[in-house]
Amino acid sequence: MTTNATAIAHTNIALMKYWGKADSKLNLPTTSSLSLTLDEYYTKTTVEEGPEDKLYINELPQDSKRVHQFLNVLREEMGDFPPFTVISVNKVPLSAGLASSASSFAALTAAVAKFNNWDLSNEELSRLARRGSGSATRSFFPDFAIWEKGDSDKTSYAHHIDVPDLPIALVVCKIAGTVKKVSSSDGMVRAQTSPNYQAWVDESAKQLEEMKAALQEKDLEKVGQIAEANALAMHELNLTATDRRFTYFNQNTMKVLDAIKELRAQGYLAYATMDAGPNVKIITNQEQAPAIKEALAKRFRKIQFDIATPGPGISYE
């Protein structure tokens, strides 16, 4: 008899952003998004029967409300199952814009599915995981994935996309590892009050097609250009929100963004992307990533820099 199940999911970074909901209850997005799964950051989650739904992250007890609500969504969708103690080892800084919820809810969904012997494809699992965290849809797949926005619960899910061998790398600038003052969920709601929001949605649809073409053409510079334009426009929405405008940027964020422009002027392949947090990810190739990391580490001695490369899809233990 199965008493526990374990799954491992890697985080992903959206090169085309998810920033806004068409349906908050179902977590349906306003845009389709495209991501890169990262090898270096992951969540390992074990579920085991317990007296009630509880959550532990890195051996510390956590507020279990969000996990309990999500598990109840799965129970309603797939049929009842016992209460779970959820034990997660998170190799991702929490709430700092490195997509910790993506790997967490993907791993949780997969572990629950394994425990219950659900015979589901990764696309079907991604649809279920969406109810916990939209970005989790993309963490079931290796390398590049697209989360199709869809127009209903059944049509909003992610899938892998085949991309010719592309030597992409990210230089991750860990500017802050603290909890965000504005959560992603609240930030999206506020950003959607920007008068520029619909224009961003419309432009994102065009950029997604351009991004897919650039990936197939192995044009990493074009990939970086599109990703940077999409991300910076997303963050501009936060600044133009009519409901409590805000920013995730801090002084070091701005300094690193300026440094990226300087690196480009020096001939480096370097483009910025950012999620909901102050940390900056630099899109480059695997050959130049070490030199970019070294140059920035000398300039910003209090910021930690890592190199991330394409990662695997969901796995089990």
Overview of the structural elements:
By secondary structure, the chain is of the alpha+beta class. The chain has two domains: 4-164, Ribosomal Protein S5, domain 2 (2-Layer Sandwich), CATH 3.30.230.10; 171-308, GHMP kinase, C-terminal domain (Alpha-Beta Plaits), CATH 3.30.70. It is 35% helix and 26% strand. It has helices at residues 65-78, 100-115, 122-129, 184-191, 197-216, 220-239, 251-265, 289-299; strands spanning 4-16, 21-23, 28-29, 33-49, 54-57, 60-62, 84-90, 144-148, 157-160, 168-174, 271-273, 280-285, 304-308, 315-316. Strands 1, 4, 5, 6, 7, 8, 9 and 14 form an eight-stranded mixed β-sheet that branches. Strands 11-12-10-13 form a four-stranded antiparallel β-sheet. A two-stranded antiparallel sheet has the order 2-3. α4 (184-191) crosses α6 and α5 packs antiparallel against α6. InterPro entries: GHMP_kinase_C_sf (IPR036554), Mev_decarb (IPR005935), Mev_diP_decarb (IPR029765), MVD-like_N (IPR053859), Mvd1_C (IPR041431), Ribosomal_Su5_D2-typ_SF (IPR020568), Ribsml_uS5_D2-typ_fold_subgr (IPR014721). It comes from Fructobacillus broussonetiae. Residues 9-158 form the Diphosphomevalonate decarboxylase-like N-terminal domain. Belongs to the diphosphomevalonate decarboxylase family.
